[in-house]
Amino acid sequence: MKLACMTNVFRHDPPEAAFAKIAAAGFKHIELASLHCDYNTLTNALIDNIVHALNKAGLDVLSYYPYGAREHWTRMPRMFEVARRVGARTVVLGCAHVGAAKQLEPLCNKLEIDLAIENHWPEPFGRPSDFHSLNGSVSARIGAAPDVGWFAAGGQDPLEIFRVAPDRIKVVHLKDVAAAGEHRPVNFGAGVAQLERVMRELVARKFRGTITVEREAGRVIRFVPDADGKVAYDITEEPLTDAEAIRLLRQARKWALAHGAVE
């Protein structure tokens, strides 16, 4: 299970700066967020410039993370084309229901790129049990990208994904959170996401996918119910120096490698 770093940990930086900081933290692989490679606006020539910057930083793209995918479903062909251009093996995105994912089977097969559905509480696929719908209903190219921090923040048991859809896991987003009820990142192993048990399970199952560190230090997301019972996000971002952000990433990388990830 190869270890990668999500580029959105440096969401406010231009691509070259974000890549340099991730490399400084010791990572060799990334999950490239569309914040740093926008499928909606960039030409192929500009995407090639990003690939050049990645090569210069010594980084390899394992997966592509397009923001707002559910709102731009008609743009899926372009999203997958961009993923292929940067060398990603997997596209990680949110999805409204398994039927929508099934529509992408021809695209996955044509470009030989997997689709991994992520979870954000309380959106669709916010619970591990939601991933049961993948079993037997879609091709092997479509699976799950469980974010263990988001499961824990929503009061869910991250370990349940191994009981619900163990053979469908393609990418794991690795983060820890302080408590259920909000998405407040903490050092790996210090929160409620049961990261050590998750890693032991992945090692025992000889997981061959990607482990993506998403250490969003300084960013707290609170869940705020509205009058209709729906949940909105209240996002607070606290200033963080580059040195501190890199230190936290190094710490997360060291923890993941010590618990079975490889580079």
Nearest-integer average pLDDT: 95
| SS content category | alpha/beta
C-alpha Rg (nearest Å): 17 Å
The quaternary state of the protein chains shown equals single chain
CATH superfamily: Divalent-metal-dependent TIM barrel enzymes
Order of helices and strands: EHEHEHEHHEEHHEEEEHEEEH
Number of domains: 1
> What percent strand?
15-25%
Largest pleated sheet: 8 strands, parallel
Terminal CA distance reads 8 Å
Tell the overall outline.
globular
| Helical content (DSSP H or I, runs of 4+) | 25-40%
Which fold name is given in CATH as the topology?
TIM Barrel
The counted number of beta strands is 13
**What topology, given as strand order, has the largest sheet?**
6-5-4-3-2-1-11-7
The top level CATH class name: Alpha Beta
CATH architecture: Alpha-Beta Barrel
Which residues sit in consecutive blocks of at least 5 with pLDDT less than 50? none
Total helical elements: 9
